[in-house]
Amino acid sequence: MPADDREALDRAADAAASGARDLAPDEATALVGSAAGDPDPRVRAAALGALTRAGTAAEALPAWARAARDPSSAVRRRAAETAPVLGAGPALGDLLALLHDDDIWVAEAAAFALGERDDLSATAVRALADVAVDHADPLVRESAVAALGAIGDPAGLAAVLHGCADKPAIRRRAVLALAAFDGTEVEAALERALDDADWQVRQNAEDLLRESAEE
């Protein structure tokens, strides 16, 4: 392994370890610097993770905003993954940009992060619904469907129903997401799911219908 690569891995390991303890002021300052300016994206990603775990909001949020726009997809992915830890701090506009990232792992993590928010705008719900229906990658569609179920906004129901006719993994997730909604369309979708070719889809539908009958 080249010396430069070993040094970068050592810096990344040191940054990650910092997040497991209370940070002294000089450690926090060093992490902020690494998250913003280290030439290796592995170090920037590790420093951001440590800041979101052990830093203050004043330290972590500016670092997060920079990471959300980082040229490295690995750093942008870490930004998407750490967003839920920061609650309502990360800007919705930044998360929506990550949702539309060219890297599918960034987009998938951003969809999950949006599903963890309780302050989504109508625009954000529509964006998730569009991704759940139209994104080219099934992993991202699945994550968006799950997020819509977690949010439970009626504006997302049509996209969840669309997911009930998608690939098996998405159908499974979509049927589970229907638990957040009600109405005749939901009941009809669950009844159709009882005859799905995938046994897990059928099982999910049976479980939800049984729970509904017991309420």
Structural overview:
Helix 3 (41-54) packs parallel to helix 5. With 215 residues, the protein is mainly alpha-helical. The chain contains 13 helices and no strands. The chain has helices at 3-18, 25-37, 41-54, 57-67, 73-82, 92-99, 104-115, 122-134, 138-151, 157-163, 168-177, 184-193, 199-214. The mean pLDDT is 89.
Main sheet characteristics: none
Number of strands: 0
Helix content: over 70%
CATH topology of the largest domain: Leucine-rich Repeat Variant
The CATH homologous superfamily of the largest domain is called Leucine-rich Repeat Variant
Topology overview:
Blueprint: H1 3-18, H2 25-37, H3 41-54, H4 57-67, H5 73-82, H6 92-99, H7 104-115, H8 122-134, H9 138-151, H10 157-163, H11 168-177, H12 184-193, H13 199-214
Helix pairs in contact: 1-3, 2-3, 2-4, 3-4, 3-5, 5-7, 6-7, 7-9, 8-9, 8-10, 9-10, 9-11, 10-11, 11-13, 12-13
Tags for this entry?
215 residues, mainly alpha, Leucine-rich Repeat Variant, 72% helix
